[in-house]
Amino acid sequence: MKEEKVVADLLNDFERGRISRRQLVQSLALGMMAASVSAPVFAQRKGFKAVGVNHISFSVADYARTRDFYAELLGMKVSEDDGKRQCYLTFGETVLIPRNSRQPGGKPVIDHIAYSIEDWDRKQVEEELKRRGLDPKPDYEGSFHVRDPDGYDLQISAKEFMTMPS
After folding, report:
1. Which residue has the higher pLDDT, 4 or 79?
2. Edge-to-edge, what's the strand order for the sheet holding 50-60?
3. Where are the alpha helices (DSSP H) in 62-111?
4. For the domain 50-161, what is the CATH superfamily, name and number?
5. CA dist., res. 100 & res. 107, Å (int)
6. CA–CA separation, 114 vs 147, rounded Å?
7. Domain boundaries, the chain
8. Angle at 120 between CA 117 and CA 125, to 5 degrees
9. Is the pLDDT at 34 greater than 70, yes or no?
10. How is residue 11 annotated by DSSP?
11. Bigger pLDDT: 16 vs 6
12. DSSP 8-state assignment for residue 159
């Protein structure tokens, strides 16, 4: 990296007596200050700020068995149980949604992970996702689904819509 070379050159100059200790420290301090000044500008270009995992949806062979396991072992609160296919398991501000698999054999698989973001504005979120070439698919009023670089289903959700169905 370019920064590592600059630091190595400064240390080399110091060790060879070309610059004083004061000059070394001043140069390093100025470099750190410059990096910290440019950091907020860089951070503004990153997109959204995730504030939590909204929910994790996963396919299971038997949602009721999974529900009982997590509720009994980890004390997760059961809600939205439809008695047939799925329920919500809440802990803190995060929700697990075990769903009966639609695949033969009920192979367990993470269906998608939803992240809550700050400052939700549906139109702006959609525009930013499109700008990045992510082809957003609307879910409910407070979320979009996109694919991450590895093909996983990623749901971007409004913080205000925690635990909404997807």
Report:
1. 79
2. 77-79, 88-91, 94-100, 50-60, 109-117, 153-158, 143-147, 137-138
3. 63-74
4. 2,3-Dihydroxybiphenyl 1,2-Dioxygenase, domain 1 (3.10.180.10)
5. 10
6. 12
7. 2-44, 50-161
8. 90
9. no
10. H
11. 16
12. G
Q: What percent of the chain has pLDDT over 70?
A: 72
Q: What tens digit of pLDDT does each residue of 42-93 get?
A: 445 578 888 889 899 999 989 999 999 999 999 999 999 999 999 999 998 8
What pLDDT was estimated at residue 33?
A: 59
- From 27-31, 49-53, 133-137, the region with the lowest mean pLDDT: 27-31
Tell me how far apart the alpha carbons of residues 158 and 140 are, in angstroms, rounded to a whole number: 10
Q: Using CB atoms within 10 Å of the CB of residue 31, give its burial: 0 to 12 exposed, 13 to 18 middle, 19+ buried.
A: middle
Q: Which single residue is written with the structure tokens 């979120």?
A: 125
What angle separates helix 2-15 from helix 21-44, to the nearest 10 degrees?
170
The residues pairing with 79 across neighbouring beta strands, listed in sequence order, are 88
